[in-house]
Every structure is written in C-alpha cells, then in structure tokens.
Design brief:
Helices cover 0% and strands 36% of the residues. The protein is mainly beta. The protein has a single domain (8-102), classed as Thrombin, subunit H.
C-alpha cells in the first residue's frame, strides 16, 4: 500500500482509466522513456491511498479503460516495439478476485 507519493507518476501518460465512483483504476500507458507498461494501480478516493494491482498480460500504451459490470476493462493499445500498431485485444480486471483475464471476443471489431 502506498499513500500520497510519486507511486502513480509512471502512469501519467496515455493510460487506461476508469472508476466505479469509489475507486479509480489506471493501467498501461508509458514511462518517461516511452516504454509501454503492463502495470496497474487503484486509487481509493476516500482514504487517499494508491495500491498496486497485478500486472496485465500485455504491455499497453495508449489503451482505453472502462468500468462495466463490476470489472475494469482495458482495451487496445500497443507494445513498445509495435509503436502505433494498435491491437484489438482486451483484458478485464475482476475487482472481486483481484485477477486479470483476457477478453476472448474481438471487442473493437474489424471496422476500427
């Protein structure tokens, strides 16, 4: 657990973000050297506390986030070596179990 520190600074740029109105989730993005990240964090608003989450399966820069049906969904993005070549995969963080799972269907479709 980390409180009021520079802990979240790694995720300042092009991260996926979403909230359930109590907890703010952030994942992916890139660091100061523009390396894509697979790490994730949660911010507990009422306690002003940042906590690390388990890493995602893939590095995801410029990904999108959505909180839906009790889960944090991270969609798209690209890995460092694939700069700008966005993938259509997604991962879901289950807040109940504290685990990531791949999303099996092509969430972005073929026309995006």
């Amino acid at each position: 657990m980390a409180t009021r520190c520079g802990f979240a600074r790694r995720h300042e740029v092009f991260s996926a973000c979403a909230s359930d109105s109590k907890i703010f989730y952030i994942a992916g993005g890139h660091d100061q050297e523009k390396n894509a990240l697979k790490s994730a964090l949660s911010y507990h608003v009422s306690g002003d506390v940042w906590d690390p989450l388990p890493d995602m399966a893939r590095h995801r820069d410029e990904c999108k986030g959505l909180f839906y049906r009790g889960k944090f969904h991270v969609i798209g993005g690209y890995q460092t070596e694939m700069q700008g070549d966005f993938n259509k995969s997604a991962e879901t963080f289950n807040v109940e179990t504290g685990t990531w799972s791949p999303v099996e269907e092509d969430v972005l479709g073929t026309d995006t």
